Amino acid sequence: MPGEAIDQLVLLGELGLDGAVRPIRGVLPSVLAAARAGHPQVVVPAANADEAALVEGIEVLAVRSLEEVVAHLAGRRVLARHERAAVPAPAPAADLGDVVGQSVGRRAVEIAAAGGHHLFLAGPPGAGKTMLAERLPGLLPPLDEQAALEVTAIHSIAGTLPSDAPLLTRPPFEAPHHSATMAALVGGGSGQIRPGALCRAHRGVLFLDETPEFPRAVLDTLRQPLERGEVTISRASGSATFPCRAQLVLAANPCPCASAAGDAACTCSPLERRRYRSRLSGPLLDRIDLRVELPPVTRAAWLDGLGEPESTAVVAGRVRRARAVAAQRLAGTGLTLNSQVPGRLLRGRFAPPRASLALAERALERGALSVRGFDRVQRVAWTLADLAGRTVPGADEIAEALGMRLQRVAA
Ligand SMILES: [Zn+2]
């Protein structure tokens, strides 16, 4: 009964003129849809078989040619169900212990990971901005099964799924260049719509190095999708919506001449410096809770002392505990991270004790802190309290959070 079999069967793949069945993008979401629609079997290109076999409740048959499909349907050579190879453990991520002499930066990525805060790193070339950003995903909890399938499906459609890793289990890291087009950053393309770097960073980290070099329009475009957690891309061929709950890390040099020696060797005019920094203000920067200025690494190393830097495993343990405490406190609000707490709750149910806030209130009165800035200080202070094992932020936590706000870059 080949006809009946064909009715039940879903065939995926690209057919070559020679009859070869070639791999395609987007196999995982297609197979998920087929399984949901009640199809018992799917035939996929052999190269996509491990990816397809991630889906429960549907039998995967792997083929290399059309001839194999025909022989199977005719009952001449029946294909066996494809068994997925064990998902290999991902290669160890870059370790935070490798970042020597940057205690300020290491502290910043720990806080960002614990509270889910977007992070802005300012500092001279060689201060370790990229190294620090690359280590943030390793501090985040691994993806649970649902999240892993979501992230893998996006990379499957984008065509960026590594052939040796059918399932992505770690938070992804995406670092588009400042010359990237809007389509490369957000999504688009001709023909089949491809998710951009923002979507590929879903449940992971989107790193924009040399942020002031990105066109302002591009930066402003990111704000709304980041707030909503999803982006809809429309083309003549149709539209597609992808999730994009990514954590943002922005990095910038202190000025356009980017002197590694710091301010003393800067050759920029005051106007050039002002113009450069003005590119760092606006609706996107307004969403960044943590703004940290990294000292040049030689001085930082000295300030750091000679202690061995903590490893990713040690810091990730603190991050996990802090996240658990925050999630428990926020239970019932629909939120899990301090970065998500709206101002309304920070002034109500989650207001730090009045006595702790004295320093921040004075900054507010002086005009050194905006009302939104005041909220951001409180969000960060809650994360600092969670990391320190305190039930509420004290004056110390408010002071440290203020120090991460009142920077001369993009204050
Ligand atoms: Zn300069």
TrEMBL record:
Pfam families: ChlI (PF13541), Mg_chelatase (PF01078), Mg_chelatase_C (PF13335)
GO molecular function: ATP binding
Endpoints of the signal sequence: none
InterPro entries: AAA+_ATPase, CHLI-like, Mg_chelat-rel, Mg_chelat-rel_C, Mg_chelatse_chII-like_cat_dom, P-loop_NTPase, Ribosomal_Su5_D2-typ_SF, Ribsml_uS5_D2-typ_fold_subgr
Annotated ranges, domain AAA+ ATPase: 115-298
Domain of life where this protein originates: Bacteria
Family recorded in the similarity comment: Belongs to the Mg-chelatase subunits D/I family. ComM subfamily.
UniProt name for this protein: Magnesium chelatase family protein
Organism of origin: Blastococcus aggregatus
